[in-house]
Amino acid sequence: MRSFVAAVLLVAGSAARAGEDTDTPGAGRWEINMNVSGERSSPGWLSVIPQAEVNYGWGERLQLGAGVERLIAHPRGESSQSALGPATVGAKWRFYEDGASGRALAVFPTYSWNPSSAAVRKGLAEPGHSLMLPLIAGFRRGEWALFVSAGRNIVSSGADEWQAGLKATRQCLPTVECRLELEHSQALRQEGHTQAGAGFKWAVVPDLILQASVGRDIGPSRPEKHQLVILFGIQLLR
C-alpha cells in the first residue's frame, strides 16, 4: 500500500494547486466547491470523494479559504483503504491589477497538514505538513485569458518541490468557459512530472456552476505515471 501511495502522491499534491488564477470571489461573497476526482496509474486508482473547499472574499482582492478531502485508494490486488486526507488553509491576494491592460498579479500561500492520524497509519498520506508559496500572473484579452503560476512547496517530511502551471481559458459560449491546462512539478533531486488536461465550466444559473476536466501525465512511461485524471464538481456562489 505504501509504495502505491508514494507513487500517486508525487503529483496529487501539485494537481490541487497548479493551474490557479488571479480571480477572487469579491467582497462579502462566498464560493463553495464540491468535487469528486480520480487518478489511475499502474499501481491502481486513487479517488478523492469528496473534495470540499470554502472561499470567502475579504474585500475585492483578498480570498480566504479552507478545504478538506477524503481519500480512497484502490491498489491492484489489495483491498481498498479510505481515510480523511490533508486539510488546507490559504489566502489569495491580488496585489496588482490593471483593468485597461488586463494584467494582474497574485500570491496564494497555502498550508496543508494531516488532521487524521488514520490517513498516515493506513499509508494514504505522508506525515508532516507543507507550505506552498506560488506567484500567479493573469492576462485577459476579450474572451481569452491566460494564467501562469510558479512556486515552491516546502515539505516538512520530504523533499521540497518546485511547481508551475499554465492555464488558458476562452468563453466558448455565453455560459460555458473552456479550459486547457499544463502542470509541472519536480521534487528536488527527483524526476519531474508534467500533466496536461482540458475541461469546462458551465454556469447553469448565475450562482451555480458545473465543472469537469480530464487529463493525463505526458512524458516517459513510469509506474507512477497518471494514465487518466478526471474531475467533476459543483461550484456555488453566494
Describe this structure in words.
- The protein is mainly β.
- The chain has a single domain (about 1-235), classed as monomeric porin ompg (Porin).
- The chain is built from 2 helices and 13 strands; from the N terminus they run αββββββαβββββββ.
- It has helices at about 1-15, 115-120; strands spanning about 30-40, 45-55, 60-75, 80-100, 105, 110-115, 130-140, 145-155, 160-175, 175-185, 190-205, 210-220, 230-235.
- Strands 1, 2, 3, 4, 5, 6, 7, 8, 9, 10, 11, 12 and 13 form a 13-stranded antiparallel sheet that branches.
- Strand 4 (about 80-100) and strand 5 form a beta hairpin.
- Mean pLDDT is about 90; it is low at about 10-15.
List the helices and strands and how they pair.
Elements: H1 2-15, E1 30-41, E2 44-57, E3 62-75, E4 81-98, E5 103-107, E6 110-113, H2 117-121, E7 129-141, E8 144-155, E9 161-173, E10 176-187, E11 192-205, E12 208-218, E13 228-237
Antiparallel strand pairs: 1-2, 1-13, 2-3, 3-4, 4-5, 4-6, 5-7, 6-7, 7-8, 8-9, 9-10, 10-11, 11-12, 12-13
